[in-house]
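Q: I have 121 residues here and want to know how they pack in 3D. Can you give me a structure?
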Amino acid sequence: MQKGSSLKGIVPMRYREMRWPVDYPVVVLRGSDRIAATIVNVSSGGARLQLAQELANGEVVTVALGNKRLAATVRWCRAGMCGLRLLTPLQRPDLATIRQGRPNADAVTSGRWNSHLHELR
């Protein structure tokens, strides 16, 4: 880099977590509301949910995963789908349990992803 040059405007590449397509029913808890939802793709740090009720961007919700409760922030919500960022990453056993909802699903890795999987950036 030349003297006096600036990195302003340069965006560093970000690591993309592996995502798996799944079909795993969960309940989203928002205050006293219980909203039925289905996880349609998951990574250790987030999930895409299909649900009938819209959530607000930035809202903190709880996802009931069996007897576990996972806190998450809503990153986006539109057309019956919501992207969540988990406040604590999923542990391997929990991720494996969710992935078993759809056996033989191939991982979606950086460089091999579909355009509809960009929501968890």
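Q: Anything worth noting?
A: Residues 19 and 59 are 23 Å apart (CA to CA). The helical segments are 92-99.
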